[in-house]
Known about the structure:
Strand content: under 5%
Low-confidence stretches: 1-15
Mean pLDDT: 76
Oligomer: single chain
Number of helices: 7
Amino acid sequence: MQRNAAARATKDANPDPGKHPSTGMSTDTPLRAIRCYCIGCVGSGDEVAECGGEWVLTTDAPCPVYPWRFGCRPETAAARGRDVACDGPRRDPLDAIREACLACCCGDEREVRLCPSNGTGNTTFCPLWPYRFGMTPETARKRGKLVDPPVHS
Length: 153
């Protein structure tokens, strides 16, 4: 059963935006964010290895981040003896994150832009949040996208 990573994350604000607040895992790169997201979705690293790339309920398609679930490129995972077979189309990790965010928001680009899962206030933290535009936070910032969590005083 596909579960939303945000549903399993903590409701506390994330004091270190480079780390997931409940797991302490690094989310400072798209591949590490995907690994953290996948662990949040299925529960543990061992379960990530057993994940079959289940269909995302909102899109009726394979999980877009499945090929990168080990936190590295599929070729690297295969060289390490991991099964990386995937029936879905292969994408760039940032494009896959964008697609995952669109799936979470039922295809609504506005909802992706306004996604509250940045770990501030009473919201949960999704490790994909900084990459939800399909680009690095630095690139998104340069293009005027909302990538920095609001600062509450």
